[in-house]
Amino acid sequence: MAKVRIRNEIRFILNGRDVALSSVAPDATLLDWLRLDRSLRGTKEGCAEGDCGACTVLVGKLSAGGLVYESVNACIRFLGSLDGTHVVTVEHLRGPPGQLHPVQQAMVDFHGSQCGFCTPGFVMSLYALWMKSPDPSNEAIEKALQGNLCRCTGYEAIMRAARAISSYGKAAKDPLAVERRAITARLGAMHDGARVEIGAGKDRLVVPANVDDFAAVLDKEPGATIVAGSTDVGLWVTKHMRDISPVIFIGDLDGLCTIAEDNGVITIGAGVTYTEAFSTLAKRIPAMGPLFDRIGGEQVRNMGTIGGNIANGSPIGDTPPPLIALGARLTLRKGKKRRTIPLETFFIAYGKQDRQSREFVEAVHVLVPPKGTKFAVHKITKRRDEDITAALGAFFLTLAKDGTVADVRIAYGGMAAIPKRASAVEKALLGKPWTEQTVETAMAKYADDFTPLTDMRASAEYRALAARNLLLRFFAETSGTREPIQVSRHEAA
Ligand SMILES: Cc1cc2nc3c(=O)[nH]c(=O)nc-3n(C[C@H](O)[C@H](O)[C@H](O)COP(=O)(O)OP(=O)(O)OC[C@H]3O[C@@H](n4cnc5c(N)ncnc54)[C@H](O)[C@@H]3O)c2cc1C
Ligand code: FES
Ligand code: FES
């Protein structure tokens, strides 16, 4: 590998100004820095765990599609991860002289604010939406606001404000749109292809220059914490006070953030976020679209990666079960060496994955279900939006010409210590006619596969029953014998 140049500061733009920081703690959050160091206190701290959205700011980054602004949670976004970005806080919103910004004016006129604590966060989420979609549907507004909580207004006033923003001004005339070219040039000049290293010894952070450099850095620093979107790791710091240093930030690395399809296989780089993966996956594997819409809120989807979801190894991560059901494979890399394994074998036991020291997750390869096959995934939670899985079932089925089950893969989250296949249930289905009777017989086999736990999300009994019934639902969906009901708020409204 060519010698990598090292820079000892991170550079980004904060609102209108260039910032260069040579002293950054590996676990410093953007929120603390904004409020305590820069006295920008419009960005609030509510939960400090990515749930309430009071800390929402925009982060603009250069990507293949140009300069893209996304809402993020400043409370769990690390300062060290911002190299080469444009951070926009609520203080930067401007209207014509003497007037509020269109988003702010709409919130005032439609009574979208009462105590006001959540308001800057809502304003920033709506700002991101309005720039992307000036006349959004109710569904788009709800999706953009999934990660913002308000205890006062009951949301309807905020929804009305959101629908009215464009009557107060045009998104094309917004300063961030008008200045896009200048900001793009300034960010472009910051991208000098260098590795960033700040601090010394254990108290150190590194932003590798690219994926090859990441492999080299990890090789020398096997004990470092890898941080991609920080939607899991952020909470280790803000909630568990864990020492995560030294840290390697891999959020926007060249060579790790691409998603591409070749011959019916979609390869997703470990640094690809949910938002970046959405359009490809929802188009090619339609059942994944509604699932992604229910992972975290918009801010979490803008930061969190599928690679992080897998590497974290949580039994309630939402992407491993559908990816396992789809027969996905995982590429792990150590230095220059790579190995590719079936994803399901990566999960060994609770907290234990098949990942060696100095090895990292480089990509996941997902088979697009061939024509004629059936695939579904269903997530069960207490709330529809921004809730963690109690149980999640994913189903892949191929029927033979005579209507018998030629191939079946069923995987669950929330039912065991790892994301796991329902092998006994699959065995009971294989080769049998795809009928309700076969399915009901197979449902009795769940007890052979799973002994779920009772916790705050669901009781063991509930999980067991829900898991069985998801198979019945899949049968109804695929056989046309019953019309499954999908409840969503916009339909109910
Ligand atoms: C409010 C909120 C809501 C959430 N809702 C959901 C939800 O609905 N469903 C769900 O599944 N999850 C949810 N999560 C959890 C989290 O968003 C996901 O697990 C996410 O995919 C993690 O990705 P990340 O890039 O943020 O990972 P990080 O937090 O950066 O890292 C997670 C783990 O993976 C490791 N890691 C990351 N990348 C690599 C790599 N390339 N190689 C090796 N190790 C790596 C890290 O060291 C760490 O151990 C939620 C989180 C929050 C804060
Ligand atoms: S403070 Fe609640 S999401 Fe950040
Ligand atoms: S206005 Fe009080 S929390 Fe939203």
TrEMBL record:
InterPro entries: 2Fe-2S-bd, 2Fe-2S-bd_dom_sf, 2Fe-2S_ferredoxin-like_sf, 2Fe-2S_ferredoxin-type, 2Fe2S_fd_BS, Ald_Oxase/xanthine_DH-like, Beta-grasp_dom_sf, CO_DH_flav_C
This protein's UniProt keywords: FAD, Flavoprotein, Iron, Metal-binding, Oxidoreductase
UniProt GO MF annotations: 2 iron, 2 sulfur cluster binding; FAD binding; iron ion binding; xanthine dehydrogenase activity
UniProt-listed Gene3D superfamilies: 3.10.20.30, 3.30.465.10, [2Fe-2S]-binding domain (1.10.150.120), CO dehydrogenase flavoprotein, C-terminal domain (3.30.390.50), Uridine Diphospho-n-acetylenolpyruvylglucosamine Reductase, domain 2 (3.30.43.10)
Entry annotated with the keyword Coiled coil: no
Signal peptide residue numbers: none
Sequence ranges assigned to domain 2Fe-2S ferredoxin-type in this UniProt record: 8-93
The EC number(s) this enzyme carries: 1.17.1.4
FAD-binding PCMH-type domain: residues covered: 198-371
Enzyme class: oxidoreductase
Pfam families membership: CO_deh_flav_C (PF03450), FAD_binding_5 (PF00941), Fer2 (PF00111), Fer2_2 (PF01799)
NCBIfam families for this protein: xanthine_xdhA
PANTHER family reported in the protein's UniProt record: XANTHINE DEHYDROGENASE
Name of the featured protein: Xanthine dehydrogenase small subunit
